[in-house]
Write the structure tokens for this entry.
Amino acid sequence: MKKKSIETKENMSFAELTTFGSGGTIKLVIYPDTADKTVYAIRQLQKLKVGYVVLGKGSNTLASDEAYEGVVVSTSKLNGIKFRKNTVRVQAGVSTVTLAKQLQQKGLSGGEFFACLPASVGGAVVTNAGCFNQDVNSVVVSVTALHNGRLCKLSADKCKFAKRSSIFKNNGEYVVLEADFKFEKSTPQDVANTVSQMRRKKSQSQPLNYRSAGCVLYHDKVAVSRLIDEAGLKGFQIGGAKVSEKHAGFVVNVDKAESKDIYLIIQHIKDTLFARYGITAKTEVCLVNFTKDDGNDVFAGS
């Protein structure tokens, strides 16, 4: 990494790098500041057969409390944004809030939802993030990624976007580097009004005063949050984590929660939903450094 002037930090923790504020120690975190350096770093890790996980804002990640022996590749320094009329090329580490601000300034509509996500653009692409009837799939044109050590550019239809999912999620063969988006021409004031309405609804319905990763579960056909509420799970608590009383889809860190507390709540919710309603909810958050078993369907890292 020193050869390519890539910044590194030792002995950090996932608690510092995720919105849940929990998780074990990390031996090494690297911060490439260009796409080329990112490609170089990952190719070297693959060549040396060193396990790694790529993190943006860590807003959709639950890492176990155990020490992680691999390397975290942070995209936080990949911050390039290039506009061309109503299209924009955005690097993976750009904050979705930053992107939303620039879209507003240019009077471009369709990406207002980015203002309500505590995410990186790369992470939003991976999970097909969205809210208030907007999502990544509705505005993305193409995605540039590293696939098994080779650069590739996938058109939107090749990304296999689905509800809170894509070809990139739970697939260590891909690392998203940048994405091209297309938006509709509007006015800065109209875009600002839409963003304001979305943020007001968000503050009224979501527990923004606690650390969380947003909704932890989803289902392709039913509203999981409503069923969690109907099942009487609001306020259910293990250790320092509990199901939010304000929004049943959120598990929040209320008192120095450990990752195992959050994980056990997620599993309890899934078991309850299956027992009561016969549905198998899917895990929306990406699990890092957990042991895969039949109950877990989303894992990050390589």
